[in-house]
Write a structure and sequence with these properties.
mainly alpha, 2 helices, 0% strand, single chain
Length: 113
């Protein structure tokens, strides 16, 4: 039989660090995004600039859209991971209560070798 075990506190700590990284990215990205937009508006309208922008803008717009969605991806992943921890803890509580109910006592069963 395969045994699955989790360190809920350790996993929650890791989730919180991952969430903080997403929040730091969001903050840095918003500052950088504003700077990029301000820079692009001052490039001018000559032939060289227009040639550059025709190639640059489609790529930049795709990159910005993806970067805009990253912080939401971090939040969603963290929320999903925390649900796994919560489910694990709930299953552990339910399993422990079931064992106690079936054995008629509050003593924990001994670990199998």
């Amino acid at each position: 039989m395969t045994r699955y075990d989790m360190d809920p506190d350790g996993v929650s700590h890791g989730i919180n660090r991952f969430r903080a990284a997403g929040e730091a990215f969001e903050s840095a990205w918003q500052a950088r995004r504003a700077a990029l937009a301000a820079s692009a508006s001052g490039l001018g309208g000559d032939v060289m600039t227009q040639a550059f922008l025709s190639r640059y803008l489609p790529i930049a717009e795709r990159l910005m859209a993806r970067a805009d969605g990253l912080s939401g991806s971090y939040r969603g992943a963290c929320d999903d991971m925390q649900c796994c921890v919560d489910d694990y803890l709930a299953a552990n509580t339910e399993g422990t209560a079931t064992v106690h109910r079936l054995t008629g006592g509050d003593e924990r069963p001994s670990a199998a070798p």
